[in-house]
Amino acid sequence: xxxxxxMKIKYExxxxxxxxxxxxxxxxxxxxxxxxxxxxxxxxSNIIATQIEIHRRFGxxxxxxxxxxxxxxxxxxxxxxxxxxxxxxxxxxxxxxTYGAGLVGALLVGVNFAKALAYNLDIPLIAVSHVHGHxxxxxxxxxxxxxxxxxxxxxxxxTALLEINDYxxxxxxxxxxxxxxxxxxxxxxxxxxxxxxxxxxxDKLAKVGNNVYxxxxxxxxxxxxxxxxxxxxxAVVNFVHNHExxxxxxxxxxxxxxxxxxxxxxxxxxxxxxxxxxxINKLVVAGGVGxxxxxxxxxxxxxxxxxxxxxxxxxxxxxxxxxxxGSAGYYMLKRGLGLADLDLxxxxxxxxxxxxxxxxx
Length: 361
Ligand code: KG4
Ligand code: ZN
Hints:
- This protein has helices at 3-15, 52-56, 63-85, 104-121, 130-141, 181-191, 198-206, 230-245, 252-278, 293-305, 315-318, 323-334, and strands at 21-26, 31-38, 42-50, 94-100, 125-129, 149-154, 159-166, 169-175, 282-286, 309-311, 339-340.
- It is α/β, with parallel strands linked by helices.
- It folds into 2 domains: 3-136 and 318-340, ATPase, nucleotide binding domain (Nucleotidyltransferase, domain 5); 147-313, ATPase, nucleotide binding domain (Nucleotidyltransferase, domain 5, 2-Layer Sandwich).
- The strands form 2 sheets. A 6-stranded mixed sheet has the order 3-2-1-4-5-11, with helices on both faces. It has a 5-stranded mixed sheet with strand order 8-7-6-9-10, sandwiched between helices.
- The longest helix has 27 residues, at 252-278.
- It is globular, with a radius of gyration of 21 Å.
- It starts with a helix and ends in a 21-residue tail after the last strand.
- It binds 5'-O-[(R)-(carboxyoxy)(hydroxy)phosphoryl]adenosine and zinc ion.
- The site of zinc ion (ZN) has 5 residues, from helix 5.
- 5'-O-[(R)-(carboxyoxy)(hydroxy)phosphoryl]adenosine binds at residues 29, 130, 134, 155-157, 182, 185-186, 197-200, 203, 287-289, 291-292, 319-320.
């Protein structure tokens, strides 16, 4: 029997095993992370090596530099994750890895490490979509949280509203027609001369600013669950450039605050609408922008007044980490989904809601 035939049997057996320990790997962008997760929700370790300082001087992530740094970091991070979890590699039941979406070169480092490990230990390999990982960050943060719920997915790569009917059943209600919201945050931060990554900087600066500029979000999508952030982004960029050309002084805090107020309003209004539309009174936010203070404040206040339960991941699970990938992998395993063969490769784009299926499965 070849590796994959053996793994199909093991995967089936693991479905009913009482305690399942998953080692998970995330390397889709500028964080190298390895975690050990027990039964989908218990984090035994979650080691993250961030490259933020390395990329900061370039004003954004340089893909080639990211790949090289993942290669340098991954073996040590793996050893650290085992040590912190106080387990040996023989105790791992399966390996889960982000196979997309993300930077191909960066993803490949994690995928190849995971394949070598799974093959060497003769254990199943689970291919996890990065977005599913972000959603699962909430399962780790809130032990009682179960589907169904509506998810507002807000990251550097995605902005979407999803109806999550079961752990692996996703229905797309709406998505961005242009920029992801994190991208807009980062671009506005950049034009204001704030360091990378810009989202947290805008968040901080907005706290001392006022909402005085009318940077509006396009009205054309108001009757849909779709989003557009390129208009407001360009409005801010043009505003800043015009003022700079005239030599006028800018109030960066007011710009940050006005931009953030309009963007978070749009997200909050549509997220609540989506809950009503889906008839679900549970809203979950996921992804890096889910760390935004003002967005969480608005979602939480509005949910309270509409009798909707509101969940956000604890801060450390909001941005990229391997623990969330291990949690998503666990629920895939329990449903017999996502088992990968050794031909698994990195994918720059993965459709929201898509679940990996090996060719010969
Ligand atoms: O989920 P994530 O770590 O990576 C992707 O999967 O894209 O999200 C990164 C994005 C970046 O655009 C970053 O600026 C943004 O999340 N972000 C924030 C905050 N923290 C991170 N945006 C607004 N406010 C924050 N506090
Ligand atoms: Zn992410």
